[in-house]
Specification:
Chain B: Its main location: membrane. The complex is a heterodimer of chains A (363) and B (294). Chain A is mainly alpha-helical and 363 residues long. Chain A has 15 helices and 4 strands. The chains are: A mainly alpha (363), B mainly alpha (294).
Chain lengths: 363, 294
């Protein structure tokens, strides 16, 4: 019985993987596959937020920054690939056909460099920021505000550098994805499958992470940081690791977002986009395994369906989701399942282990 | 000197505007520990009050002075409503208050977008603010001077109120030791509410000042909230002196950065500056000693 309950999340991931990788491509139309791919990218970032915020107690309100780093790294490579070797990207020719390619674009011609950058860029940025903040014990709301400020700053910076980054119009019109023609149905399916597979990998990574000693320490740091410190651990390192992992996941989500959606603009990475990512995690259940991913998919779906058909109403709904979920269901919809499980357990008189999901974050 | 003076004066005015925006936050965030992300939308509400007042009283000479107390009351009541409906249930969960008020901010933005024209509304500045004064050869616009005077007046009034009035005493008592204040007969719940009313009301005053300087539209709150929070973070919570210095420093620094580089890079640099500053003083410029481990 115990063995079964510990394996349960793994079985869940398996079912989820089959649904995403086998059932969805067989059932859904091309349009919905591309939409689902977009939700998968948002879900990848959300899984990271669940780790940093739900498990680590760090409210990361600027994940758009890391999403943006990955997305722009990928978009720059795809733009250069589309332009062809030695040529300038289309939007740059519009401004000045004779201007040289900005120096920071040049390495993105290389496929290997791009892939490495998608992982390393967020590691560097989040490690520097996280080290600076966590070592000085900046936490709680201060941390949240600073991460959000970073997202605003990056979005403003990109929208103001039209010549170098495409500005508010962003980067779009990609034709090739690492040698594959993007406008081909089979290739689109392949890109979707990569995104879905990456989501499954991220879920597995977080599942393994939560079971490890480090995952225990992370939850302990969230609930009683001082006590963890007194026990001889450095909470700063624990938090830093979770923050960096979350940043890398956001970056991977951003990188896959680009070939699937076909455009990246500063709006996708700014303050409101970052808040949208948080909304999904809060709705699904920040500390649970599946909550963040499913919540992000739900919000993504709402954004692309309701958000375009009934934009005024969608914002109100989004605002109300924030208020009601946070007020009445701080651990998200997934806590309903846990409560139901708790009820069943109590009726069968079998004391269950206290799960980290159920602990209320009260400080 | 000729090159340094204009950014210095413009920066002081920007700092004063940030100070007005942050002053209410020091009260709600600093004194009460509530992170109200809808504070920016209260600023927006104040700006729209200035616009509506102008529609009723066409003479802007009269309407702007009238809008100041009106905006204070309107934003104050919005804050009170927020406290009673949402925040009072979450005093023990500060991070969650932040998120719930993000939801409130979204709703208020959308409401403003539907009530007022999407491109924003014009607010006429009164004729007595049309002009410049000559400061060492630089023509300093009077509306910038007005912002500074308004900010100084608000700071002085708030400081005096907190220090000398019996109500201010009760607020400080509640902040320092809520339980003891309660046993001494301070009605801490009504203290909370009035603190929140005044803090939000100050956002309304800031909104009137902002409407005279920048645009009045549904997105204006977003512009002010993050710099205002950075000011509070850098200034140290609960200290008006820290907020004043931090606001002026951030305002002047941003204006200088903008002169040397560009407006957008200035925002990035200001952010980096605050993070570096927090390395030196993680608790901000001035801090109240509390009994909490931090």
């Amino acid at each position: 019985m115990t063995k079964f309950t510990t394996r349960l999340p793994l079985i869940g991931i398996g079912v989820f993987a089959v649904l995403l990788l086998v059932v969805a491509p067989a059932v859904l139309s091309e349009h919905w596959i591309s939409n689902l791919g977009k939700y998968c990218c948002l879900a990848i970032a959300a899984v990271g937020i669940g780790l940093a915020w739900g498990r680590g107690g760090m409210l990361v309100m600027g994940q758009g920054v890391f999403f943006g780093l990955g997305a722009y790294a990928m978009a720059m490579h795809l733009t250069l690939e589309t332009a062809g070797p030695g040529a300038l990207p289309g939007f740059m020719i519009l401004y000045d056909p004779l201007a040289p390619l900005p120096a920071f674009w040049e390495p993105f011609r290389s496929e290997v460099f791009t892939l490495v950058a998608i992982v390393l860029l967020p590691v560097i940025v989040s490690a520097i920021l996280g080290y600076a903040l966590f070592k000085r014990r900046v936490k709680g709301a201060y941390f949240a505000i600073l991460t959000q400020a970073l997202a605003v700053a990056l979005a403003v910076l990109i929208s103001s550098t039209i010549r170098e980054t495409g500005g508010d119009t962003g980067l779009s019109n990609f034709k090739y994805f690492f040698g594959y023609v993007l406008n081909d149905e089979a290739n689109k399916l392949m890109v979707y499958l990569i995104a879905a597979a990456l989501l499954v990998v991220c879920l597995l990574a977080v599942w393994q992470f939560n079971r490890s000693r480090f995952g225990e320490l992370l939850v302990a740091t969230r609930d009683a940081e001082e006590r963890v410190r007194f026990l001889g651990y450095d909470p700063a390192n624990i938090k830093l690791f979770a923050f960096v992992v979350a940043a890398v996941m956001a970056s991977i989500g951003g990188a896959m977002f680009v070939p699937i959606v076909g455009i990246i603009t500063p709006q996708e990475i700014g303050a409101s986009a970052s808040i949208l990512m948080i909304a999904g995690v809060a709705l699904g259940g920040r500390a649970s395994l599946f909550g963040p991913a499913l919540g992000a998919m739900a919000i993504g779906w709402g954004q692309s369906s309701l958000g375009s058909s009934w934009p005024e109403g969608w914002i109100y709904i989004l605002g109300l989701i924030f208020i009601f979920v946070i007020l009445f269901l701080p651990m998200g919809l997934s806590s309903l399942f846990d409560r139901a499980k708790g009820l069943i357990r109590r009726s069968s008189d079998e004391p269950g282990p206290a799960t980290p999901e159920l602990r209320e974050v009260v400080k | 000197m000729d090159e340094l003076l204009p950014p210095l004066l413009n920066g002081t005015a920007l700092g004063a505007l940030l100070l007005l925006a942050a002053l209410g936050l020091t009260l709600t965030f600093g004194q009460m520990g509530v992170i109200n992300m809808a504070h920016g939308e209260f600023i927006m509400a104040g700006a729209f009050v200035a616009y509506v007042t102008q529609q009723v009283i066409p003479s802007s000479d009269l309407s702007i002075p009238l809008a100041l107390p009106l905006a204070f009351v309107v934003a104050g009541f919005l804050g009170l409503l927020l406290e009673v409906t949402i925040i009072q249930w979450m005093y023990r969960r500060p991070l969650d208050t932040l998120l719930a008020t993000v939801g409130v901010a979204l709703i208020l933005q959308q409401a403003a977008l539907q009530i007022f024209p999407a491109q924003g509304v014009p607010v006429e500045k009164p004729s007595w603010l049309d002009g410049q004064i000559d400061v060492l050869g630089y023509e300093w616009p009077l509306r910038q001077v007005f912002t500074i005077v308004l900010a100084a007046a608000c700071v002085a009034a708030l400081a005096a109120w907190l220090k000398y009035s019996s109500f201010g005493r009760r607020i400080r008592a509640t902040v320092q030791n809520r339980d003891l204040a309660e046993t001494s007969g301070v009605a801490t719940r009504s203290v909370d509410r009035i603190t929140f009313f005044v803090g939000s009301g100050l956002a309304g005053v800031a909104g009137v000042a902002a409407s005279l300087i920048g645009g009045t539209n549904s997105q204006m709150g977003v512009q002010y909230i993050i710099p205002a929070f950075l000011v509070v973070v850098a200034g140290g919570i609960g200290q008006i002196a820290g907020t004043v210095i931090a606001a002026l420093a951030v305002g002047i620094a941003m204006t200088f950065f903008a002169y040397w580089t560009s407006g957008s890079l200035a925002q990035v640099l200001a952010f980096v500056l605050v993070v570096i500053f927090l390395q030196i003083r993680p608790q901000g410029l001035f801090t109240v000693r509390t009994r909490g481990l931090a």
